Amino acid sequence: MRIGTQRSAPWTWSNGRWVSGTTWLAPYDHPALETWSLCDATRVAFQIRERLLGHDPTAPTKPRPVSRQAYDAAFADARRWPAAHHLIEITSDTVTVTTGARATAPVYLLVSRAALHANWDITQLRPLLPDQALDSVEVSRSLALAGHYSTRTVFEPVRLLTERGQAVFHEGTLTFTEPPACEHDEPRELAENAPVIDAYVDLLDSVLADHYHDAKHTAVELSGGMDSSNVALSLARRHGPGIAAGALLQDGEPGEQQVRRRAALMRYCGISEDTTLRAADYLPHDPHWMSEQRLGPHEEVYIAGHARLLSSWRNDGILWAATGVGGDEMLSWLVPAGGPVQRAPRRLPAWFTPLTREALDDQEHGIPPAPPISDSTLRAMACGAPMYLRGGIWPLYPLADPVMWRFGQWLPEIWRRNKRLARARIECCDGLPREVAHPRVRENFHHVWHASLTMFAPDLTRGLLKTGSPLIDGGYIEPKELAEAADRIEHRSMRPEDTMLGHTLRLHQALT
């Protein structure tokens, strides 16, 4: 999107975008989405929104002229759209952009050259940025893995439009209005023999039903964990056999267990199409894969493997990917009275400068009011969206839906502890082996990260020190200490905090 100050030409629809002179808005082209536009004598409005099941999609056209009263009524209805959406209103001197509570694919906003620019892919805004346009607090948080969900990004002029947020562009200035804080519920006392599992299954089914998707073109990211397993079971319950699956597979005993558990789930769900990749073949710091990726500073760490999985799916006709994102927090997270969750102290690496350490002191600066779901889930969705959309796939996050979160907050602790509810639902599926709900070996990607560091970090660090980095120029990292960390990794004498060197290298790549 580019909206300049001169917008006198009539609005038209041409080549997949709305156009008025040098101003344009281009909706993301996907069958999950529809567009809407109308205008009166002084205002024009556009909405890009996720389709609802059972609603006929609206076709993109030039804005339809209506009366002032009809515009007001239609605009009010548009603001209440229950699925993911962005709503843009333009007057003679003001542009207002708003979004809803379901932040599936948030957009980044930037004012440059007297125009407002917006894109779901922050890398597309990079050419418009001035040199050294870094936000010291956000850079420091990214280095320390202490990020928060907020409008701020590592690029000082670029802002994220957060859930329920509103951005106003007027006289060359962009301002944000924060939404009211959401009230969060306390656990409730359950009636004797309350059908908790049935309620969970029915609610998850209803959330999936709210999101338009075609089963023949839908896949589930089935790692075999509790969350993706529950999503797969609900998709199969809703659609029967026919959905596809895919995953990054681990090595060794965890990988063997993962293969068994996934196979049992796929047999139960009737999944026959499965795409798997070995995670260790797509190490996150491999220069070969890193050079292929358009990497934003806030994106998925294991993007190389995931992007290849999405590409394979897209070649097979997959257009939607359902994930288990949000499931961990749904069954464990509660906002304590008095503010956001406090983060545990972390031993910081020696290469962090005093500037970086001081910026981390005020951990709650710039935090928006309490959202309807957790900070970490919103960040996970924002990190993943560019990867999915570049791949031509619309992500589905049923466990991150606010209604699922409200249900999770109502549950007594006994149902949330150790994800009892998610495990219990799997245990109710006759014929599934016990290890599907109770794996004996822990499955994660720690070994992949460690292998990537030991194989690539020393040479990448020396390359960074030779060519320079915005992180050094900006005073965020100490070159001497960084070189010593690389030496420790090379000689297998790593300190625990040296594992964070991988994140420093990833941020460096995103900034260069």
Any descriptors?
single chain; 512 residues; alpha/beta; seven-stranded mixed beta sheet; five-stranded parallel beta sheet; 19 strands; 36% helix; globular
What's the layout of helices and strands?
Elements: E1 2-4, E2 12-14, E3 17-20, E4 23-25, E5 33-39, E6 44-50, E7 64-65, H1 68-79, E8 85-90, E9 94-99, E10 108-112, E11 115-119, H2 136-143, E12 159-160, E13 166-170, E14 173-177, H3 196-210, E15 218-221, H4 226-239, E16 244-249, H5 252-269, E17 274-278, H6 287-292, H7 303-315, E18 320-322, H8 327-330, H9 354-359, H10 375-390, E19 394-396, H11 402-410, H12 413-416, H13 420-427, H14 434-437, H15 446-467, H16 470-473, H17 479-490, H18 501-511
Parallel strand pairs: 5-7, 15-16, 15-18, 16-17, 18-19
Antiparallel strand pairs: 1-11, 2-3, 3-4, 5-6, 6-8, 8-9, 9-13, 10-11, 10-12, 13-14
Helix pairs in contact: 3-4, 4-5, 4-13, 15-17, 15-18
